[in-house]
# Entry
Amino acid sequence: MPTIFTRKKYNALSTLTVILLSTASLIGLNACSSGGGSAPLPSVTITGGSVVEGDTGTQMVSFTVNTSVASTASTTVVYATSDGTATAGTDYTANTGTLTIPAGSTSASITVDVTGDTAFEFDETITMTLSSPSGLTLGTTSSATGTITDDDDADTKGYFTGTANVNSTPYADMMGIAHNGRLMVFSPTANVLYDITITNVSTMDFTGTVDVYVNGGIQAGVTTVSGTTNESQVQGTFAGVGATGFEVGSFDILFDTQNNRSASFTRMSTNNQSKPGNVYGYYTDTGLMRVNSVGAYVGSDDGNPQCGFVNNYNLPGNSINVYLMAHDITDSINCGFISPVGPPLNHSGFASVIDTSATDDTIVFAFSDGSISLFGIIDKT
# Structure
């Protein structure tokens, strides 16, 4: 009997020991499986916003920082801006620092000051990058792009070259001189000049009216133009009714970046020498142009020295190598021109000095007065 009692007691203790050991083992396994009792850190990501640039002052573009879950304690992450297509110090103010996300929150924001201006630009970008998280881990998106949306109208300036297709006839020698609301596009081979007055610009799109000159005389009918420009390219479509078929078509001209350098009339006028070249428009002939040191220019037709023009030129502010021209024909009757009654300076247009070498320039010019036009390519000597 004692022996039986002892065996039963022993079996009970053994069973209890096994249960206790098994429980301890399970507790230990659970502790190991939970990484020592610490939960995974939240991840942090960032997204960018956009802002309209404005004309003056500063606007703010915001970046939103998000965490995957709220933390029971505050967390931090370092942030810094860098240039995308926008330039720090000009387009925006650089911003670096440490962002704190309060306990219980899952988001916070960073703002960057954007500088307003009135210059046409493409939309520009700023990059914001996160680093060095504390209490967080970097997520899959640790940098984001903020966009500065431009709200200024294009204002094309300079000398352009390109092509046109007018009444299904291609022209590969189109030239254009543009400043503010006027664009003069011409083809020497076709002896046609389009004197375009821009009447409306909406960001990059424009509309306008066109005087079409063929062989120097104004084209009958009314012509309009619509197109787009990004200040390095001008594309347009002509629409109208005329007598000779030069009023319907399209053109595509590109800013001549290679030649639109800091050329000037002064190179030509060092010794008041003349420059010869081809003149188109009312007549096709060889012409001369001279410029003196005080900024006066003289042009004439070699075939008829009485047929000339004379006046001063000036460089419009903030333009690229474009000179305003305004003058009267010195002897319109002997030139075959009958100038309309008007102010003394009733011919106006542009000239652009093309930098073709270190010492000599080519002058491209165009002007009109509402009845006749002239344009020319005055070559280097």
